[in-house]
Structures are given as C-alpha cells and as structure tokens.
Amino acid sequence: MEVIISEPDVVSKRSKFAYSVGHILNDLSASMWFSYLLVFYHRVVNFSNASAGYLLLIGQIADAISTTFVGFESDRTRTGLFHYGRRKTWHLIGVICVISSFPFCFNLCIQCKDSDLWAQFIYYTMFIIIFQFGWSCSQITHLAMINELTHKDGERVALNSYRYAWSVASNIFVYTMASILLGFHPSNDETDITPADAPIFRTLTFIVVGIGLICMIIFHVGLKESEQLAEETEYRLQLSLTSSGRLKRMTWKSFLYEKEFYQCTFIWMCARVILNVTQVFLPLYIIDTISTLNRVFVAIAPLCSYISGLLASFPMRTINKRLGRKTTIIFGLCFTLASTILFWFIFDLKDHLQIKIALILACVLLGIGTSTTNICSFSLASDLIGLNTECGAFVYGIMSFADKLANGIVIAIIQQCNPCTLASTTRCALYYRYILTFIPIGVAILTILMILSIWKTNIGGNRHEIIQEGQNDAHSTNVVSNEDESNEQRPLIA
C-alpha cells in the first residue's frame, strides 16, 4: 500500500518572497567580509598581510564551529522561543548578533585607533567572533527551512535559485555603493586604498546593516513557521512508503555513515572555495596586478561578475531539469575555467581599453560559473536531505563547517606567503596573478573528478528499509487510524 500525503507542495508566492529575502543581511555583510576585509585591515588599519589573513581565519574558524553547534541544536529544538518556530528563533538570534557586531568590524577602533596593533587585533577579534556566530545562526536555519517548506524537487530548486538570486543582488548592491563612494570620495591616490578612506567603509557598513534589517523584518513577518510545520514533516516521514520499502529515520550519526554525505560536502566546499577566493583576491588583483586601472574598478569588476551571476540564476530551474544537477555543475565549472585563463593573460596586455574589456569579460564568465556551481551544490545538499528534515540543519552545518574552515585556511596560507608590501612590485603583481588563476583551476578539476564519482548515484534516494508483509499491514492499519482521527488536518490518498 502506498501512502501519500496530499499536503500542498507548492510554496505560495508570498512565502517564496519572504523566504528569499531572509538571508540578505548575511549576504550583504558577507560581500563586504570577503571582498574588502583584507583591503580594509591591511591598507586602512595598517595590519600586515599575515595579520589580516589571521583575522579572516579566526572569523572562519568561529563560523565553522558555530555552524556545527547551531545545526545540531536547531534540529533538537522543538518549538522555539514562545512557540515562534525552531528555525526562526535561531535565525532571529543570528540577526541580533550580526547587527550588533558588524558595524565595529569595518570601523576604526573606537578610542583605540592609535593603540598598538596587537591591542587593535584583540578588539577586532571579539566583534568578528560575535558576527560570525550570528552569521552562522541565520545561514544554517535559513537553509534548513527549504526542505521543511516543500519536498517537491522543482520547488526546492526554485527556492535555492531565488535565495541565490537575492544573494547576487546583495553583492551587486554592495559593489554599486562601493563604486559610488570610492568614485566621489576625495583622495590623493586614485589607484589605491589608504587610511584616509576609512569613512567609506564606515558608511558602507551602516548602509548594509540598515538595508539588511528591513529585509529581516520582511522575512520574520511574512514567513510563518509553526509547530504544525514540524509535525507535518514528521508525519510525512512516518508514512512515506514506496515500492522499495519505508523511508529510514535518520540521525546525525546515520548521515556520517553515508558516502554520499562526504561527496556532496566536498562539492559544496569546492564551490564555495572558488567563489570566496576569487571574491577576496579580485580587488587586490586589480590594485596590484592591474595597477593602471582606477581604484573604482575594485567595485565595478565584482559588480559585473555578480550581475552576470544574477542573470544566470533565472533559468537555473529549467537547466537543472533538462541537464541534471551534475551536468549543470560541470557546465558552470567550464565558465570558471575560461575566466581564469583570461585573468592570466590580462597581465600581458598593454592597451588600456583591452585590459578593461578583458577584465570585464573574465568577471562575467566567473559570475556565470560561480552562480551555476553554487546553486547546484545547494540543490545537491537538498537532495541529500530529502524528506529526512529531522537532521537538515546538521547536514547544512557540517557542509558549512567544511567550507568555512577550508576557505579560512586557504586564504590564511595565501596571506602568510604573500610577498606584497604597501608599494606594488612586479613580484606582487605576479603573485595575485597566480592566485586568481591556479587555485580556481585546481579546485575546479577536483570538483569535476568528485562529480564523476557520483555520476550514477541517486543522491538521497536509497534510504529505504524492506518491510515485511505483516509490518506493512500493521503500518497501513495505523495510517487508517490516523486518518480517522485527524482527517481534516492530514488528508491521505491511498
């Protein structure tokens, strides 16, 4: 007997919109974090390259640890604060932490800007840890809600696409504001960032927090999460019978025994490493490698990348349906590889116009590639969780742990080996050329190999236990009993 719950699988337009803007505060702050953290702490606060890299590493480690904790505790939470909803309660905690700490991360040390650098390092570290804890609270719970809002594949891809589209739009907004502020702020050096530009970062931070707060209000008011949501998900899991048997109940330990869990985590991690490494070092590549361009291009170039990424996210649902997740990811990685080749050859160009055109084209290709790979990696994670939403936040937490730790270590190593000083040199120019070319290429190749290893794997589709005939009959009887007791709340179709 096959039992199907006839609950609505299609998420309403209002709920889709409210959900999609629920990560904008994180997206806006993350855009500044990855794009301008090294620039701000090295060129404005005057930390060394290594110290700036360590601050980013500390933040990534704090985020990685927090994601694991939040994922585990969020799954254990039943109703949340005052029955507000278990996911939205943790999300709200994250919003409060981000708003209260992020403005201090991109502002000169209050009452201590003339103190020793080690004292300022501790000052920034405290606020960075609070910010990263809040960021992880919002990110993990927001991702975990996808599988609880719907178990329909197309709807999950749509929610991931809308979520990523707003993420790209957030980056576009940050780079647009940065280009305006950099373009209109008076400076003695039109090609570099100096301590005199501290007010630009302070203003940009307040804009980010203000816009993000408005979007968080829309999310918390517009999207309802109640106890019934968790109950319906639990009920669906109990009744899910297929021709292969009954769907297994998963614990966090059960996921750790699945090979596909590690494969999907690796793909997720690689997609984020490509995105974040290029995002972090693109401004430095423009300042030190292509030193002839105006400093406003540290905002214009990433802006072009994210505009192309936004446009690429719209047809993603259709492309996924026709080509499949794995083919689509490889398709996106090809765009990423093409962009890295351009980044390598831009250094050899002499004509000013040719440099601008090649840079913009490389950023457009990079935007399409990173947008495609990230949306598909999120969708693979959703496939892995499937109907087993009882551990959804834990799965996202571990995947986020892996990508945060990997990004932090990679960027810290790059900064530790960084030969650059405040004065640009040929050696420095070549260094960022190597970083922006060979790291994305190497990670992309590893990703392709991992995708080939799961090419014929049905992600999340093999969690069924064979049910004996007697058990099947008993289960069917239990279903009928439940139907009689609450037919209006949980209609069933046999």
UniProtKB/TrEMBL annotation:
Disordered: annotated span: 472-494
Residues that span the membrane, as ranges: 17-41, 53-72, 92-110, 122-144, 164-184, 204-223, 266-287, 296-316, 328-347, 359-381, 393-414, 434-455
Gene Ontology BP terms: carbohydrate transport
Domain of life: Eukaryota
Annotated Gene3D superfamilies: MFS general substrate transporter like domains (1.20.1250.20)
Pfam families: MFS_2 (PF13347)
Sorted UniProt keywords: Membrane, Transmembrane, Transmembrane helix
The keyword Transmembrane is assigned to this record: yes
Stretch forming the signal peptide: none
GO cellular component, as recorded: plasma membrane
Start-end of Polar residues biased regions: 472-481
Gene Ontology molecular-function annotations: symporter activity
Family listed: Belongs to the major facilitator superfamily.
Name of the molecule in the record: Uncharacterized protein
Organism annotation: Rotaria sordida
